[in-house]
Amino acid sequence: MIQPQTAPEVDGETRTAPRLLVADPESALVEELAVILEREGVEVMGVGDGAQALLQAGALQPDVVLVSASLPVIGAVEFIRAVRLTRAVPVLLGVGEGHAEQAVQALSAGATACVARPYRVPELLPLVQAAIAGDSGARRTLVVGNVELDVNAYQVKVDGRIVHLPLREFELLHYLMRNAHRTVTREQIMRNVWNSTGAASTNTIAVHVKRLRARLGDSDDQLIQTVRGVGYRLVGSS
């Protein structure tokens, strides 16, 4: 991982690898992410707060910025607003439980997309690559039956009507839609939605599925089906 204070000058430099600036207060998380992404050919620079992020965004000219919603000193939304005054660099927002409102504000301020935090490289890397490439197709929408999920905007529509979901339920629906028409086990759900490798909590998952069904109007459990003793399957409406 590049240390910002010792990074080479950008002017006149020929760069062979794209640069990602990660602003996150958890240094261990940034280090772990850097190790994985640098194997994919992405140079990673890490800073711990919004003030440092603003400084390095100007000094190092990264190709894309990833900021945590819990950024200290200068918050993520304020950082995005400040960056948008001078640069069009793509900014990804890392959001966790309880950050739904910040996600909405960040997108309104000019964030390119939101991504779940703790970060999952299979989800993060395509967004980073698309943002670096300036790919207008980076906006990803999933449609299953009458349900439409906009990954980047953190928005869900049912029959064209916006349905507001808490972050965890959004991530649960996202995972089920990515695996539409396939049965996913409780263990897979815990690992991919809760980011936990521990034993699956049947009650925790059941409660969230019940709430999700209610918000989606799935009163007869035809959209999200229970596969007894195994897990769940999202099949869409007829």
From TrEMBL:
GO terms for molecular function: phosphorelay response regulator activity; transcription cis-regulatory region binding. SMART domains: REC, Trans_reg_C. GO terms for biological process: regulation of DNA-templated transcription. GO terms for cellular component: cytosol; protein-DNA complex. Keywords: DNA-binding, Phosphoprotein, Transcription, Transcription regulation, Two-component regulatory system. It comes from the Bacteria. Pfam families: Response_reg, Trans_reg_C. InterPro entries: CheY-like_superfamily, OmpR/PhoB-type_DNA-bd, Sig_transdc_resp-reg_C-effctor, Sig_transdc_resp-reg_receiver, WalR-like, WH-like_DNA-bd_sf. CDD domains: trans_reg_C. Residues 139-236 form the OmpR/PhoB-type domain. Signal peptide: none annotated. Residues 139-236 bind DNA. This is Sensory transduction protein RegX3. It comes from Planobispora siamensis.
